[in-house]
Design brief:
Helix content is 62%, strand content 16%. The protein has helices at residues 2-18, 23-122, 125-132, 137-253, and strands at 275-278, 281-284, 291-294, 297-300, 306-308, 313-320, 326-333, 336-343, 345-346, 353-354, 359-362, 373-380, 383-385. With 392 residues, it is α+β, with helices and mostly antiparallel strands. The protein has two domains: 1-257, Helix Hairpins, CATH 1.10.287; 259-392, Glucose Permease (Domain IIA), CATH 2.70.70.10.
Amino acid sequence: MASRLASILVAIALVPALAGGSSLDARIANERAKAQQIQARLHAKRVELHAATQRYDDLQAQLSETNAAISVVSGRIGSLTDQRDSTQRRIDWNTIQLDAAQRSLHLHDALLKRRLVDIYEYGDLTYFNALIGARSFSDFVERWEDLRLLIAANERTVRERKAAESRVAAIEADLERTRLELQQEEEAQEQARSQLDSLAGERQNLVALAAIRRHSVASEVAQMEDLSAAQEAELEALIQERERELEAQQKAAGIAGGAESPAGAGMFSWPVTGTITSPFGWRSNPFGGGPEFHQGLDIAAPMGTTVTAAAAGTVIMAQWYGGYGNYILIDHGGGYSTGYGHLSAIYVSDGQSVARGQAIGAVGSTGQSTGPHLHFEIRIAGKPVDPAPRLH
């Protein structure tokens, strides 16, 4: 769309140079002003759409990060829950062991107490009776040893039960402490997940609002593009009508059909030194959307490199111009004009006369550009031609 409108504006700019006043000139000038206003508004709206899209993408990325954090916390909570359940099962098992140890200890304590009571009330005759019942000295010694071992075993059993009770109690206390720590950590993670869920909800709402805003601005851009297309069509119709008048005047003056410059193909000098990265003609659109006709040369050069006028002439446009970014259009007379796009700086102004080789701007990457370069065009009667064979 920008290239098409540039062709129209070039043709408009050349009208006064090729013919006298016409009733169409005022109408063309008026339509040109309208087209430029629409383009300026469209550019501003596209910038707004870009900002809305960037806002939506940023919020979507933030929401994705929040959801990822929720997944991590949920996994951590699940692991803590498994650990807590495992610890609780170990606590339950140790409780069973502790209860058994306590019952055994209580049994031995009861037997011991009963034994002490019997000794107090009746005297300790059991062991004595067992000894005096021996039928020989060797039997006596054997019974004495058995009684000694029995007494030692009883004492050892009591000590072991007490030690077992202490160990089980210590293990249970440690497990209980671990269980409480896991429970506290789980509660902290639950709180974190609750906060993240709340944040995710807020960001989801923001994403929805950003999507609505982006859709609204995109609709406005589409409407303005339709309006711009209609305005261009009306302007182009006027230009074609004016060109027919000019053609008749040129024929009358004997200058019709002048397709080449009076100075020949080598009338223009290179506006900047660099490598041609995209020649004149059909190419794949670098921003997508299929093939497009490239109406000039893309010459790669470092950012800020000086751009010079390819020939002497008069500046008829020096301003921001849609996809061209900062743009300069120079009329060289005889139906010839040159255009310089994507500039980082403009050194001239509308109506200014420039000489061949004069600095007019600097290489940049403004507008629809993939990197620092100069988009250079040569037009004859508003129609783009290949600049390559006309440069020296």
